[in-house]
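User: I've been trying to design a sequence by hand for this structure and keep getting stuck. Would you show me what you'd pick, starting by listing the structure so we're on the same page?

Assistant: Good idea, let's start from the same input. This is the structure you sent:
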């Protein structure tokens, strides 16, 4: 995004369509340098020359000082104005620089400093050093069928009441993903885990025997190419 500063408003004696030589500040205003524009920075500019106008971005040079011109819009069919020698140049945002609140806002490659996010949906974000106050709500998903594809994308907590002896398959898993699975055995049904190839870290390295009442809680997580599993507790 081009740099924006306050009250940078100058005259220019430049003629034609080339790089602008920036003149003195208008009364009550400041030069680009005094307003805080540094050599080599890109700014959003507006040129007014009588009733003609040009909006664009340009690279400021302290030598001159001068400003290049890359036109965004203009009264000259969105091309560079041929200046008269008595134009005014100032820094101002264009409409595209202003983000207004909407129902849906897409931010790409942005850094959010101390944000407050309410009921947001974040798709594949990378979040570093976050502090979560007042807890958070995990998605709970109901698994069905006897050959379901288990996937963390469906929810980090999943419940499954067996309707028959079942053999789940591995849905979409990325390394570092996990889910907590609560299994009700229905009427003494069993699960065969061979299609997923779970490496069990409890129960002596074998799949847990399901409780005959209530849920059996199982944690599944993937590291590298391996899905690991463990029974949670003994209830």
């Amino acid at each position: 995004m081009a740099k924006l500063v306050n009250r940078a408003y100058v005259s220019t004696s430049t003629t034609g369509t080339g790089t602008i030589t920036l003149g003195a500040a208008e009364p009550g205003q400041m030069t680009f340098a005094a307003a805080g524009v540094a050599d080599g920075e890109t700014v959003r500019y507006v040129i007014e020359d009588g009733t003609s106008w040009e909006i664009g971005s340009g690279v400021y040079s302290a030598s001159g000082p001068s400003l290049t011109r890359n036109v965004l819009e203009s009264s000259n069919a969105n091309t560079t104005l041929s200046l008269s020698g008595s134009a005014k140049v100032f820094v101002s945002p264009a409409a595209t620089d202003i983000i207004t609140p909407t129902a849906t806002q897409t931010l790409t490659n942005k850094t959010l400093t101390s944000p407050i996010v309410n009921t947001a949906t974040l798709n594949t974000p990378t979040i570093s050093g976050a502090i979560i106050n007042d807890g958070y709500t995990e998605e709970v998903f109901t698994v069905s069928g006897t050959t379901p594809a288990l996937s963390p994308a469906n929810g980090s907590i999943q419940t499954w009441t067996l309707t028959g002896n079942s053999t789940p398959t591995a849905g979409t898993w990325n390394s570092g993903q996990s889910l907590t699975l609560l299994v009700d055995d229905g009427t003494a049904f069993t699960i065969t885990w061979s299609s997923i190839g779970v490496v069990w870290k409890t129960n002596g390295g074998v799949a847990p025997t399901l409780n005959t009442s209530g849920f059996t809680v199982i944690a599944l997580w993937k590291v590298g190419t391996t899905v690991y599993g463990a029974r949670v507790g003994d209830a």
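That's my pick for every position. To get oriented when you compare it with your attempt: The chain has two domains: 9-96, 140-231. The mean pLDDT is 91.
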